[in-house]
Amino acid sequence: MNPVLLRFSLPLLGEITFPAYFTALALAFLVGLILLERAARKLNINPLRLYDMGVLIILVSLLGARLLHVVADGQFTDYVNLCVDPVKVEVPVGPGGPDVAKCFSDAQCGSGFLCDKTSSRCYPQRDCFAAVKVWRGGLVFYGGFIFAMLFAFFWIKKFRLPKWKITDIFGYILPFGLAITRGIGCMLNGCCYGKPTSLPWGVRYAPGLGPYDDQVKSGLIVKGAEYSLAVHPTQLYHAFLNFIIFLLAYYYLRSRKKFDGQIFAFFLMGYAIQRFIVEFFRSDPRGNVLFFSTSQFISIFIFIFGIWIWKYRAAKSLEYFENTNKDEENK
Q: Quick one: pLDDT band at residue 325, thresholds 50, 70, 90?
């Protein structure tokens, strides 16, 4: 696994790097915009109106995804300490971290790190803006989804667009995009990984990536081991299940839906169920609420919201159908 998908040099420009996660994220957004345009033309909506909304949703969702990561992923203290007391922040040796575990001078630690002479440990330089540097990783889907959904409803209302028809479009765009980002970005990046497993499809990670560093810290492997213990490829679990949701929503439900909003409700319920289940197999550091991970806790409410939309829109559709029949009978 490699967090850098592609790296090459060009004259004048120097080294060009394509991080795996952000390359997959960009690809997912591009595919989403294409699907959005196709759907807009079928609904006789100006595609530029939805393009504008799509581009703005990208920015809003990144903000929301980053905000929930900072607040709820269990690293809020580190972000605060990076600004007020960087010595308290521990960063493992390896790619993105210090060069050595023990130091006697700043030069030994490598670029971006200083040496604490008291503990002989390297620590990162002060950075009060680390929380907003999304390119370093750390995004939570639910944060981006909630922010994007609120913004989308605002945009739809402002320009008087057909709300539930458009939300149905996102009901199949979102799972397809998630399949790309989880399957390519998260898998190569080494984030969102699973617990150790003896199953034949378990995945081993090299030093410097999340599973390896965390297993060294917890004593599961010794520092210097060639690879981590095999872990559940939870990124692929997410990718596969999201792709199933996309196939059902796009190729089955889209042409058979009985009311507008049905596809979006289906996505909410399907995603919440698979996310709640897969979270049990994950081992990466993240926040908790009561007995659940933050994402599991939010999934409960997302599932309930999906049920509400399904029942509400079904009732509205039935009411419209009955009123239409009455009007026909009165003619």
A: low
Q: Structural domain of residue 124, as residue ranges?
A: 76-136
pLDDT tens for residues 255-278? 899 999 999 999 999 999 999 999
Q: Which residues pair with 17 in a beta bridge?
A: 7
Residue 84 lies in a domain: yes
Pairing of strands 288-289, 121-124: unpaired
Residue type, 175: P
Number of domains in the chain: 1
Residue 256: HSE in the Cβ half-sphere, 13 Å Cα cutoff: 7
Q: What pLDDT is recorded for position 330? A: 57
Q: Is the CB of residue 283 less than 8 Å from the CB of residue 195?
A: yes
* Domain-located, residue 207: no
Q: Residue 260: inside a domain, yes or no?
A: no
Residue (of 167, 157, 155) closest to 257 by Cα position: 167
Give the predicted TM-score (pTM) of the model: 0.83
Measured CA to CA, the distance from residue 281 to residue 226 in angstroms comes to: 24
Whether residue 122 lies inside any domain: the answer is yes
DSSP SS3 for 324: helix
